[in-house]
Give the backbone structure.
Amino acid sequence: MKVLLFGKTRTVTRLTEDIAADLTRAGHDVRLFAYRGTKLEKLAEPLLMAPSLGVPLAALMTRAVRRFAPDLILAIAPFHWLPPAIFEAVAALPGRPPLAAWIADLFSADAAAAARPFDLVAYSDGGLIPLHERFGFRPRTLFLPLAAVARDTGPEAIRVPRFAFVASATPHRRAVLAAVEKPVDLFGPDWRDARGLEQHASDGRKIQAQELAAIYQSHAGVLNIHNEENAVDGLNQRHFAPYIETTPVLTDPRADLAGCFEIGTETLVYRDAEELNALLTELGADPVRARTIGQAGRRRVLAHHTYAHRLATLAARLGVSGR
């Protein structure tokens, strides 16, 4: 299948790059229309998106569609940073392929204009679909969770008996971590300020993509705390990616979780600080149990939760054929 993928690159999550990598690995012909991938593009953003100049990015996008002739166009997170004129121009192209958006974060009623050009909006968070309906957005919807990039793993790494948390800091996450007695290894620039979290080890560097797998491989497990600022019910990339490294995930309750994993055997859930402290202690001291959960989670992700699986679901809903 020929897929034109439109999205930001070099973001903290690297979501656009992950989707492109997994689809390419699965044999799809992917053309990445990457925006803001370089410092020059960031400087040019006000001009490329300026309505007074006719939104030049719209012309670039329509030219890419004509040249590549994709079977499907997928825009990653277009509600939050793109003027509607870009996809209005694409939607107006004669004989164009289906146009879909994939949204992961909260939005307001102001996103109606951004949603209008799309044939379908896929939401990785099931709690966002009621918002779409409440605001009266035009396109059809699809629940499409995030996923992971499939790949083979090397020899089993030596693991420290601690959990890793690679994420941005929010008030809720800080509050949860403040109540955790067992040391957790925190990664990311936000954790340079570790006041009130002295029991944990903080690595305040920006973690590069190639480092993330090594962090997951070298820890007993991965802690997951949802971001209260942009999530309702959904799962984030940490619910899936660690399992590629056979690393179990310990997460707070999420309404979408049971539809993706078997709780207790493929992932573990804590409901309060007491339960979280107990599970961190138990799994750190029981590498066999942690490995068993990690192996079960890996089987689940590779069988159902790669970005190639998500493309198949999206294409079926849009009636797009092709490999």
Observations:
- The longest helix spans residues 287-304.
- The mean pLDDT is 92.
- The radius of gyration is 20 Å.
- The chain has two domains: 2-149+306-318, 160-304.
